[in-house]
Amino acid sequence: MEKxxxxxVFKDQFDAVNVIEQLERNGYNRxxxxxxxxxxxxxxxxxxxxxxxVSGDTKDHHNRGKKxxxxxxxxxxxxxxxxxAAGLALLAIPGVGPIMAAGPIAAAIEGGLIGAGGGxxxxxxxxxxxxxxxxxxxxxxxxxGYIVILVEADQTQEENVFGxxxxxxxxxxxxxxxxxxxxxxxx
Length: 187
Known about the structure:
Strand content: 15-25%
Largest sheet: 5 strands, antiparallel
Number of domains: 1
Shape: globular
Strand order of the largest sheet: 1-5-2-4-3
Oligomer: single chain
Number of strands: 5
């Protein structure tokens, strides 16, 4: 069965954490969920809140999860909620700068399986199988401080993933197929 990568874009950390947890309840493993964020505070708090493992990241593998709750000390701002996704790696992508990322797409970028090269995050995402138009949208959202969450879904999972994202206030519903309420008939 053909799979496609479906993305959600979140400004609110509560929504991003809730999406990750809902995807897990729906059968996704944390290693199946890719997360990208440019904001350092948000990235740190995601790192401290969940146990998402990035394949190939062995720098601090044995200490993952030991900082759970660290983000609570940051205060009521950006750090308080997402305070725990252990496993986020700092990637240096040309034209983008440092970006916090976790999951299979991040691991592929870090391992050189898909290259960001001169194409920045757009090149990396298109290398992972996302259309250039969608990759440019995600890049725009990242530059505006949003959190991007991506998962691969087959036809039986699609509606559930879209529903999870939309019920948690994703900002990119215009990118979704019209049968979900979006404007993209070519998804």
